[in-house]
Amino acid sequence: VQLVESGGGLVQPGGSLRLSCAGSGFTFSNYAMSWYRQAPGKERELVAQIGSVGSYTYYADSVKGRFIISRDNVKNTVYLQMNSLKSEDTADYFCYAKYTWGQGTQVTVSS
User: Fold this and answer.
1) Could you give the 3-state DSSP secondary structure of residue 28?
2) Span 28-50, average pLDDT
3) Please, are residues 93 and 36 in contact by the beta-carbon 8 Å criterion?
4) HSE-up of 29 (CA within 13 Å, CB side)?
5) Which residues contact 101 (CB under 8 A, 6 or more apart)?
6) What is the CB neighbour count within 10 angstroms for residue 63?
7) Which of 8, 11, 13 is nearest to 80 (CA)?
8) Is the Cβ–Cβ distance between 63 and 46 less than 8 Å?
């Protein structure tokens, strides 16, 4: 199982980023996919989750209405569209599925 995130970077407050996570080594369409984040000095927290076919989604209260999780089971990829970014969204973002973590991608929200 391998999960590879991409799309992080530096963005100004109010800006947007789209993270991607490509999965391989397992039947991607059979598994729920999750995005977590970990800010410096804080515990890793669940940000968003999507069911295997995309009919179920969950969002942490802190990102509800700003972030959108989606998936493409043909491309074996899950996305996290992040809008109206705030400084408190600064963190390393990790993809998680089938007891496996990706390597993470860094998101920095700063002017």
Assistant:
1) helix
2) 97
3) yes
4) 5
5) 3, 94, 95
6) 22
7) 8
8) no
The beta strands (E) that lie in 1-111 are given as 2-6, 9-11, 17-24, 33-38, 45-50, 57-59, 67-72, 77-82, 91-97, 100-101, 105-109
- pLDDT > 70 fraction of the chain, expressed in percent and rounded: 100
Q: Which amino acid is at 31?
A: Y
One-letter amino acid for residue 25 of the chain: G
Relative to beta strand 9-11, strand 105-109 is parallel
Print burial letters for 2-23: b (CB count within 10 Å at least 16), e (below 16). Answer: ebebebbeebeeeeebebbbbb
pLDDT digits (tens, 9 = 90+) for 41-62: 999 999 999 999 988 999 999 9
pLDDT tier at 65, thresholds 50, 70, 90 = very high
